[in-house]
Amino acid sequence: MATLLARLGTTAYRRWPFFIAAWVVVLAVIIGLAAAFSKPMSDNFTIPGIPSEQAADLQAELFPGATSAFDQANVNVVVQAPEGETLADPENAAVVEDLIADLEALPQQPDDVEILPPGQVAAGQEQQLVDQAKASGGSVEQARADAAALSPLTEDGRTGLVTYTWDVDSPADVEPETLDALDEVMDDARDQGLVVEANGPGATGFATPGLASEALGIGVALLVLILTFGSLVAAGLPIITALIGVGIGLTGVTAMTALVDISSSTSILATMIGLAVGIDYTLFILARYRTELHHTDDRARAVGIAVGTAGSAVVFAGLTVLIALSALSVVGIPFLSAMGLAAAATVFVAVLISLTLLPAVLGLLGRRAFGGQVRRYAPPRDGQGLVVNNGVRWARWVGKRPVALVLAVVVALGALAIPLKELQLAFPTDSTAASDTTQRQASDIIAAEFGPGREAPLLVVVDARDVADGEQGAAFGEVVGWASGLDGVENAQVVATNADPTAEPGTPAATPTGALVQVLPEFGPAEAEAQDLLTDLREGEPGIEDATGTDIGVTGLTAITTDVSDRLADALPVYLTIIVGLAFILLMIVFRSILVPLTATLGFLLSVLATLGATVAVFQLGWGGFVEGQPLVSFIPLFLIGVVFGLAMDYQVFLVTRIREARVHGMSTPEAIVDGFRNSARVVTAAAAIMTAVFSAFVLQDDAIIKSMGFALAIAIVFDAFVVRMVLIPALLYLMGEKSWWLPAWLDKVLPDVDVEGEKLDRGPGYHAEDSDLDHELDELNDEQSHRV
Questions:
Q1: Which of 203, 476, 501, 693 has its CA 20 to 30 A from that of 324?
Q2: SSD domain spans which residues (predicted)?
C-alpha cells in the first residue's frame, strides 16, 4: 500500500494542474445536481417494522386520507387572559377575534381556512357528543366528560387553544418568513394584554444553523496550525482542503435528498466530522512532508514518501471511521443510516483530498509551501543528534510511572462514568425545549391548565372488519372501556370512525369498520410513565382482541418515538459488536499485534463511558447550570459511540504507527515509544486540539441535539486523545514491553502485509537520515519574499 500511495502522491505533485482541475469538476457537478434535484430535509424519525408503524399502516388502510404523525404541520396557539379575567370578557374577546383574523391572513394558510374561537369550538364539540349520546342511548354525563377532556377552553374560561394546520406537506415545508409573521401576530395580541404562545410541529420550523460555530472552530484551528508549522501558508492548507471536502460532502448530502429522506441534523453533523477529520488528515501528511524535507532535496520524492507513510495511516484511520459510521446502516434505522452514511461520505472525501488534492496543491506552491514564517521550531538535541522535544519528555515521564498512571486513568474515567446510571433517553418535544422559547412556554401552560397528557395522546387503531354487522359500535365501546380502566389514563374516547356520515343508515358505507380511540394519559410525553402506559396497552392487546373480535394497534407521535428509542437501545449491542470486531481486525493488520488492538479497544470503552457520563451530568442532570436538564436525544449514544470509536482509532493509528515504525527499524519497545512520541506527539496534540475546537464551537448552536452532540464529541476527544492515547496506551506499552507486538505465527501468515510504516519504499538516491538545513532554506525563502515586497 505504501508504494502505491507514494506513486499517487508523487504523480499528484508533478501533475498538479490535472488533479486540481479534476476536483473543480467534481465540485461543479455535485453543485449542479444539488441545485437541480434537491428536496427539503425532514425529521421523520420512523423505523419500518416497529409496532407503532404497523399501527400507522393499519390506520392508513382504514382511513385512506390519514396524515402521518410526522407530517402534521399543526399549530397550537395558546391564549390566556390576565388573572381574574376570562377570554369571554368583551375586551379580551375582541383581541382574540383580531388574533384569529390575523392568523387566517398568514402566508401558507389554506385558501378556505376558517379558525374558530376556543369557546365556539368547545360548545360545538360538547353539543355534538351529547347529541350522539342521546341518539345512541349512551351516557350524557360521559359525553360531557369526553367533551371536557378534549375542550380547547379551560373550565374557568381563562385559557384557550386556537388550532390550525398549515397548507404544506410536512412541517419542514413551513418557511421561516411564515413563522416570523406568526411571531408578529402573537406580539400584537401580547401588546393588548393577553398571554400568547405557540407550539406544535408547525410552530417549530427547521432553522438552518448559522456559520458562527464553524467560523469559531476554524479560527481556533488556524491558530493551532500556525503554532504547529510556524508558517502562514502551511497553516492555511489544511483549512482550505478541509473546507473543500466539507463543501463537496454537504453538497452531495443535499443532492441525495432527491432519493432518500435526510434529517435536518445530518448536514450539521457531517460538517462537524468533515471539518475535524479533513483538517487532521491533511495536517498529518503535511507534517510528515516537512519532516521528509529534512532527508531529501527532491520535493516530489518527499511528497511521495509522506503520502506513502502518513497517507497509509490516514487510509486506515479513515477506514475505522468509515466502518463506525457506515455500520449505523446495519441496525436498520433509516434516519440514523442516512446520518451515518452522509458523515461517512464526507470522511471518505476528506481521505481522498488529503491523498490527492494536498499533493497537487503542494506541487502548485513548490518552495512556497512553508512560506510566511512567523516562528521557528528549533528544539534542543541530545548527544546523538536526536531531537529532545516535549513529546520525548512526556514519553519518558510516563515510562517512569506506568502503573500509577494506568490506575489513575482508569479510576478518573470510571468516576466520570458514574452519572451514566441516570441516563434517560427520549426524543425532543415542546415540553423539553428551552424555557425561554414560545414552544416550551406554550407547553407549560397547556400542561398546567389542560393536564400534561394533552400533549402526549396515544392513538388506538381499531380494525373491526371481521366483526359482525351491527356489533361494531359495541366493540369500539369495549375497547374504550378497556383503555379507560388502565392505570394512568385520564380519558379514552372514540374520536373518529370510517363510516360515511352522509350514507343511508344500514348501508355498507354507513357501517364503520374502523375507529380511532384517543387515550389521554395523566403525564407528559417525556415522563417515564408514558412508556409504562404504552407497555400496558400493548400487553393488553391480545385480550381485548379476543373479547371483541377486532385487531388493534397503538400509534401516535408518543408511541412512535418510544418505539424508536427502544429499537435504538436494542440495536446498540449489535452495532458495538460489528464496529469493534471489524476495527479489531483492521488494527491487527496495521500493527501486526493482538494486544495493541485490544488495549486500543479497552481504552475506547473507558473514554466513551466517561463521555456519556459527563454528557448525562451536564445535559440531563443540569450540573453546572450550563443548560436546563432534559433527557438526552435517543440516538445520541449510538451515534456518539460510532463517531468516537472512529476518531479514537484515528489517534491510535497516528501515534502507534510511528512507534511501530521505530521498532521495525530496530529499536526496543521503550525506545520506540520515545521515538514515536518524538515524531508524532506534536502533530497528534495539534490534531486533537483542532478537533476539540471544531466540536466545542457547535455548543453555541441553539439546536439542543447539535449542542449536546458538539459537547459530547469535544469532551470525547479530550478524554480519548489526551488521556487514553497520550497516557494510558504508552503506559500499557511500557508495561507489556516486547509482548506488545505478540502475534501467533499462523495469524501472521494469514494477515496481509500492508506496510503502513513504508519499510518497502524506495527512497531513492540522495536520501539521508541526517537533517538538512531546512530552516536555513525557509529563511532564505522568506528573505526572498521580503525583498520582492
A1: 693
A2: 232-364
